């Protein structure tokens, strides 16, 4: 099991990661997300032993690293996958995967599992981005690492490729049975492929939890906004229910037990009806998403909420509509911000 406790990392006098605690189960995938510059890559580099740590410890059972006890990268049994693939251009796919490998039988296993059989004699320059990343992953896994770190492995690929490759990477990591930390900018990727998600802000973890909990019951408003479209409406929270201007719903207090709250609304929690006679809001903008439309509605109480409707529903800015709460799961509520 990989465990990290009270980890701090400095660049000179600048502390960029502080008080980081996390632990990973045997084949668990933790997605690490956060705004640019929050310290995601720095954490991966410290776990790999590429930069020193200033406080705390990293423990993998077979080794333990502290600020005074540096364990060099080659002793950590770590596999790294980078966004730029880091393949040797002069070697073939087979040679890249088998580079410094004692037992090449494992290479065959990953070549087959990652669908690379037809490319073994090709050089990286002749492969697509997705194929290159499969080679990089096969090379990493063929070396039987004890844990794997992935630094935005899909960020150089186009959207259609990302979707299939993210599942192939997840399946390969699960087949290898190794814990992995996967850094991404993409909240959809984090929520869909991770067993757990860790949200970072300015070098400190805001929440580590299942994707469902991080999305539905964020530990604070930053996490709520970072993981998806979020709006907040004033409400009164009593006995597990929140009453708002657009209806009553089950609720769960995040930082409060009862009283005046702001209720977190995801677009799917809000039902929009095109009902001019009984309207309680006006559409201010509409974003076409393909299979759906995301609509922002300004309520009579001056609050802006968003609702997702089918692409078949033709809604336009300026339309008078009726919005209401439509959820059976508890909505997260936070102590009211006085403005
Ligand atoms: N070698 C370095 N020397 C000094 N400061 C650095 C160095 N590398 C990174 N930093 C700073 O440390 C902070 C964290 O950087 P890091 O690259 O870990 O962020 P990140 O979350 O991975 O960002 P991004 O999502 O943009 O890749 C930033 O403020 C960055 O400017």
Automatic annotation (TrEMBL):
Record InterPro entries: AAA+_ATPase, ABC_transporter-like_ATP-bd, ABC_transporter-like_CS, ABC_transpr_FbpC, ABC_transpr_MalK/UgpC-like, Mo/tungstate-bd_C_term_dom, P-loop_NTPase, Transp-assoc_OB_typ2
SUPFAM superfamilies for the chain: MOP-like, P-loop containing nucleoside triphosphate hydrolases
Keywords: ATP-binding, Cell membrane, Membrane, Nucleotide-binding, Sugar transport, Transport
Pfam families registered for this protein in UniProt: ABC_tran, TOBE_2
Record carries keyword Cell membrane: yes
One Gene Ontology molecular-function label: ATP binding
Domain ABC transporter: 2-227
Magnesium is among the record's keywords: no
Protein name: ABC transporter ATP-binding protein
Organism of origin: Pseudoalteromonas qingdaonensis
